[in-house]
Request: fold
Amino acid sequence: MRAKTLSDLLKKGDRIAVSNITGREASKVSEESQKYCANIIGGWALGKGGEIIQTSGGTIPVFATFEELMRLTSPEMHPNKIIIYSPPAAVYGEIKEVVDHGRESIETIFVITEHVSVEVTAKAYSLCRDAGIDIIGCNTLGMINVHDQVRVGAVGGDSYREAFPPGSVTIISNSGNMVNTIAGYLQAAGMGTAYGISTGKDTLILTPVKNLLELARQDPLTKLVVLYVEPGGLYEHEAIEVMKQTGFSKPVVVYVAGTIAEKHNISLGHAGAVVEGRFTTATAKMAEFDAYFKIKAFTTDRRYRKTSELREILQRGIRVTALHHIPKAVRLVCDTLGIPRDISSAKFLKLNPWFVNLGELARQIPHELDLAPGNIPQPYARQVKEQEQSKLGITMSRQNMRNTSHASSNDGVTPRVYGYSLMDIMSEKSFTAALILYWTGELPRDQFEEKLAEMTLIAALTNGPGTISAQGAKLSSSAGNTPNTAMIGTLATMGTTHGGNGAEAVRFLIDVFGNENIDDPYNSGLDVDVIAKKSADEFKKRKLSAKEASLEYRRIPCLGHPVFRNDPINYDPREQVIYNYIKSQGRTNVFLEFYHRLVHAIKDNGSMNKVLAVNVDAALACVWLGICWRHLREKHMTIQRAMDIPFIAFALGRAAGGAGEYLDHNDFGTDMDMRIPARDCRVLSKPRTL
Amino acid sequence: MTIRMTELTFLEQFAPRYGIPVPRHIEGTAKRSELKRALEEWGGRALVKPDVLAGRRGKAGAIAQVDNVQDAIRQIKRISGTEISGHMPRSAYLVEKVPAAFEMFSAITYNSSFLQPSFSVSLEGGVDIEDVPDDKKVTMPVDIFRGLDAYQAGELIEKLGCEKKLISELSRALVSFWDLFVSTGMLSAEINPWRITPKGKIYACDFKATVDDSNYKSKVPGLEFPDYPENISAFEEEMAAWNSSSHQGQAHVSELGGSKILPILFGGGASTIITETLEIAGGDPMFLSDFGGNPPYERMLGTARICFDHKLKDAKLLLILGGKANNTFIDVTFQAIADALLAYIDEHGPIDIPVVVGRGGPRLVKGLLALKQALEYLNLPYVIFGPDSPVTLVAEYAAKLVNAIPENKEVFS
Reply:
């Protein structure tokens, strides 16, 4: 090998380049790694040259090829380590490219890619061996040098600091995941990690354990090695032969997995694919290790007396039969050989249930199995609290939605909306009911809900030709545009101030009512006057302190209207229709009622000199929040969706209104009639010469 | 994944293509007159062999020598219906019996010591190579780029004491064997024995190989690997098809014959350890599973659905367990499992088994809470652990819990 000690494989100051860096896995892991150790100097991906990946640890430039990366990067910044994330079919080409153009500077290549053919793996090894480059993998998870706080690949996931306190144990594992798991277990022995290395688990392991043990032997930080071994290959057989010959000086604690493969005659899909005789099975590997150590596998029942004989034995090491025996075995080795603990406060391995609800079953099982919830450690406890505190809404899991939809489907026979046949909806439901289904995922609860939703759509249609959204359609029509463009003109003139204020109202209402225990907004049982007065007083305080500081203050959304504003008590007539309809049905919408009390409360506390109109946007927000509320309570809907829906309802109604304006203007208007003559335009600047 | 290849496929598709001399053969489904004529042309002696994936030489006595067509037909019927080491043959076939002055062993495989292909040869063929003394066999690495040439092969067999007059022809045959190996993406291949007749003619008289499914050469049009009647359950078959339908995320299962715990396990290493722990602790897992590799939502949903459709009605406990993931998003995978569980119960009606969960990794809390919410909605008893509880202890707990559930527990009403 080129490396002489473990730090030669990875250390602080290494410059890493990543193949296929814009890929799903590579970009995610690179971003996390850059945050941790900022050791990635660039990456390459065909067709992506010139892109930049922004991370909180700095930017990563993307080149089209490795050759371009080398050519456009200054020599002192040339990479010395490579991570291959390319698809299996591209791995050989990538390694060849790296060897061809990076032979001078590259020391190690880590191949993360899975499912690389054995032939390509052998070719990669041959190329790298001839070029004097070390290669780890394929199918490695990567490596971490804990003392230098650097890693390649995803070892440690996104919680490397927590999983890997610095220490004196080096973990060498066929399984990447086990590197992390064992690092966690070691903390129970009061030990930290020096290096964690995932060897990969394909048929050919290109940096075998015998080489890694030799590097560990040379490493001054490593006092003890933990090996995780799976069936397949002669790797351990050869490592033991080398250890016997060299008198390997550091103790090794080994766990061999995979007896299940022999018992059930199944392949584990790892290196066991090619069986090369009698030393390759899990049972054979166990026997070889036990023979080398000259002691039976560690058991918790046995009392180990710290004799000179035991010291001599444990100098070589011991095998464990259960993974959770590793801490005890490591403690035994350390105590017997006088290896000091790395960590003063060891965490003991035990079951710590986070959430328990065994219900009736708890009474029927032995007491010791009826576990009580334990303490959730940080930072998880904080996250749990944050997520559970919110009584409303849910944060959805994200996924690639390119060809995926919950909302609609078409199996070639039946188009569907949230599972319901579109033809059935057409035959049996109203347009409004269909919209409620499409927007919320459920049909309206009753006729009352459906009627209210329909009223909001009608209310949104128009407020006369002077509204900027109607003007948008008329301007577009005047320019000779088509109907859809005119409707876009209407939509384009909407924003958070015009049309979108309903979304702000929903946010405001959720802030006010989110912690109230409301199951049904039409039957809340709340004293709305008290809540309105409290909100009004908060508003007054906010307004006064902002005024004192000569600052703009945050207004309550959906109060007042540029047209309906001149009376001591003002109303938006469209909102009144909705409010009065609710009353006529003997119902009360707690949100709209709150709004009505609020406008009086802010007049009464002196914040306003008149009673503002509760505008139609507020009515839309209150009606649609009423529809969404049960979905929010049941955590089937995001708050963002509940905020978006009133805006969408307004936009839909008003876009239809814009279409009406287009039709009218198109029939009767003259071309360019919306243009304002130059003489009517005011000039606020003076002519200047260049 | 590997594909296994038998002698019949070799005889029919590969030996002619690579110019490897083989004895004549005829399929057992041939007409009586054709079988009779073949026997006559071959000098009246032939072997009936099963086309079966069972490994060891001699195929546990399922090879019969015949010298007349009646016996041949009887043996073809018997052998094609005889289970060999748990495998049923696809068919039986008749192959010419070649007289031998001596036999030779040869094998090519990727070698974990050389990290290259290796070529092994012995002039004591016809027996298991492990039984041949070390000084009677020789293994050498083969440069993956340069391949095996006739001089290397010749030197090797000469070293073993091969007669000089045979070296040229044997070497050429061995190079053809290498060409076959490297051109079809094989992982390992064995011709054992080569039979060398008293007249010095060479025949490859038995063959077995494994082919690397990840190697594009295994998918060359015109090369066909037949399907064999395998002892594979409908569950394994459906999961294997689902796994091969996408490279995103793994979906491996192997039936273990257990009847208690339905294990949805993540991570190759962790899943092996957990399953071994379950077996030792009496958890009687139904199958071995490995569902890591950061599957997207729809992949995990499909995987969980297949598990539930095949196994949930018989399970006594559902175990969802893995180590601390590096890449796999826990919220995505757990939301998918929760949705699959909800869909199953929606379709098949309520179940009443405890659910034990343990996991760590990115976006963990969101994932655990999503699953918890679904379990509460379904009124299923549960215990959920985080990454601070060792997976093997969680597996032990699940095994103890499933064995503590009273037999006459009231069913869900």
